[in-house]
Design goal:
The chain is an alpha+beta fold. It has one domain: 2-Layer Sandwich (Arylsulfatase, C-terminal domain). Helices cover about 25% and strands about 40% of the residues. The chain contains three helices and six strands; from the N terminus they run E-H-E-E-E-E-E-H-H. Strand 5 and strand 6 form a beta hairpin. The longest helix has 14 residues. The N and C termini lie far apart (about 35 Å). The mean pLDDT is about 90.
């Protein structure tokens, strides 16, 4: 399966949000076919970068992802490409 991420855009979060690990918001295009928006870029407690995908909770408080990678291989491919595209912004 070909995974190609392009048109990566980043909006930094506020200082207060950054202090809690939320670095900002990402949008991108997947395989020249689908725009993904509402993705958050976070730094985990152990210092790793990760992407979190938008979700909603139903009345029973069950989380339902609006968009999400189908498996670890896809998740890692998307993260790698987004992190590469944001390299200069993430190092500042």
């Amino acid at each position: 399966m070909r995974i190609e991420v392009s048109e990566v855009r980043f909006t930094p979060s506020t200082r207060r949000d950054r202090d809690s690990g939320l670095l900002g918001f990402v949008s991108c295009v997947l395989n020249d076919a689908i725009k993904l928006d509402g993705i958050t870029l976070r730094r985990t407690r152990d210092g790793k970068l990760t992407l979190s995908y938008p979700s909603r909770r139903d009345r029973r408080d069950v989380e339902h992802f609006i968009i999400a990678p189908l498996g670890d291989a896809v998740r890692l491919a998307v993260e790698r490409q987004v992190f590469e595209a944001l390299g200069a912004e993430l190092s500042s």
